[in-house]
Amino acid sequence: MNTYRNFIGGKWTESASSRTAPNINPANIDDVIGTIRQGTREEARSAVEAAAEAFRAWRSTPAPARGRIVGKAARLMEENKEELAQLLTHEEGKTIAESRGELQRSINVAEFCAGESRRMNGETIPSELPLNFAYTIKQPLGVVACVTPWNFPVAIPVWKIAPALVAGNTVVFKPASITPATAVRITEIFEAAGIPPGVLNLVIGSGSEAGDEIINHPAVKAISFTGSNGVGIRLYEQASRRGAKVQCEMGGKNPVVILEDADMDLAVESTAQGAFGSSGQRCTATSRAVVIDEVADEFVERVAKRAESMRLGPGSDPQTDMGPSVDEGQFKTVLSYIDIGREDGATLVCGGSRATGDGLDKGYFVRPTVFDHVTPDMRIAREEIFGPVLSVLRVKDFDAAMQVANDCEYGLSSSIFSNDASRIFRFVDEIETGMTHINSPTTGGEAHIPFGGTKGTGIGDREQGSTALDFYTELKVVYVDYTGRKREGNLY
Ligand code: NAP
Ligand code: MG
What we know:
This protein is of the alpha/beta class and 492 residues long. It has two domains: 6-250 and 457-477, 3-Layer(aba) Sandwich (Aldehyde Dehydrogenase, Chain A, domain 1); 254-438, Aldehyde Dehydrogenase, Chain A, domain 2 (3-Layer(aba) Sandwich). The protein has 15 helices and 22 strands. The strands form six sheets. Strands 14-15-16-13-12-18-19 form a seven-stranded mixed sheet, sandwiched between helices. Strand 8, helix 6 (180-193) and strand 9 form a beta-alpha-beta unit. The termini are far apart. Residues 147-152, 174-177, 206-208, 211-212, 215, 226-228, 231, 235, 249-252, 283, 384, 386, 412, 453, 457 line the site of NADP nicotinamide-adenine-dinucleotide phosphate (NAP). The site of NADP nicotinamide-adenine-dinucleotide phosphate (NAP) has 31 residues, from helix 7 and helix 8.
């Protein structure tokens, strides 16, 4: 049985911990993929120390040389794309098409970051004094921790590690403990691409021990975290107390607004894609549909029909439309939210239970679920479920739709279906989310476009795109005076 190892200071070593857990295929719980050993606090410390030691040499490696290695990692991901996609589906459960998509996103991000290594420009700024000017340079921070969730266990680590390395930082990577196999493969790819020992370190272990040790280590200058709000806010409080830089991308409760003039085929198809794709386990998943009364009956009927037509099964079967929830904990959480929706008085239109038959009993499958007549105060309208559950909220007009869509602590993504330019652009102005989509699902993003949320979802700089390096660099300002004389003016 494969036991996942840590990668510290350029060496693969098995954890000394005796605490183990099985890595289980969520589509078939009898299928154990490997053994997870929970890395210890001591191992987490040695990973930080290895990263600290490697920093000086890595920071003085020219950025384009660092970028070349990240570019090589992109090519290796491309060469191993199918194997990585299969592993991702096996470990996390998403469909093979979704896994291939995640791999392509990862390749794109690494390619983009490699290119950015030749564009780490500062600016030159004319001075108010004669024979003076100033310029800025971007410098790395030091040891950066990348703490990642299980739902995009390849793409999210890559979109943190690649810019962190290009910027000249050394990295301690703490993946979600339930997706170690993909974390090991990504690390191996960076190793094979030529990352020097200590520059990228992997610690497999629980958040509460290995993770806690890393984020509280004084040598860790910055933490890029993606995950739940509960964990993210606590991590932010702890790390900011010692002045560490923190970036948190957290939960979502993403609304789609459907106006009465919407193309209903498109609205139904896109909402189903956003709500049930990846079994609802995307931070950008559609979890609320805010629908104008006059088209609500039609929308609900059609989206429920679409939900019921989805084929559930193992992600490895190319016929499968939707895979399982990732593990028992997530599976139970989703089912308990379905109970809560019923108890709170929402109307269950379809789904509402685990899926059985055809071998589905062996996995954590939940039937795509639609609740109608959800009101804004209900928990299924407010809390992130992270499963294939759509809450439909009916509203009388556009203003009510905006009010309901924004009545939410999260602010990651959103979308609108309409062909009325004036209401579309009012929506764009007023919607309180970091990303929004017009006539397309709430999900999706591109490697060269910034990604992230507002309100309760996001803290700190945006990830990816033109902004990716902002978080991972410090700006230094340099004043140059070539008068050769004592300063007369500008004495403030
Ligand atoms: P999570 O439970 O918050 O865990 C995220 C990471 O933090 C894991 O590696 C976890 O380790 C670690 N962790 C837990 N406690 C810690 C502690 N005390 N100190 C340091 N690290 C700690 O989130 P998840 O369940 O893996 O992922 C699902 C969540 O991620 C959802 O809320 C989803 O919306 C969010 N998400 C957001 C985005 C975005 O860009 N906004 C993208 C994807 C996902 P363990 O695995 O060992 O617990
Ligand atoms: Mg978790």
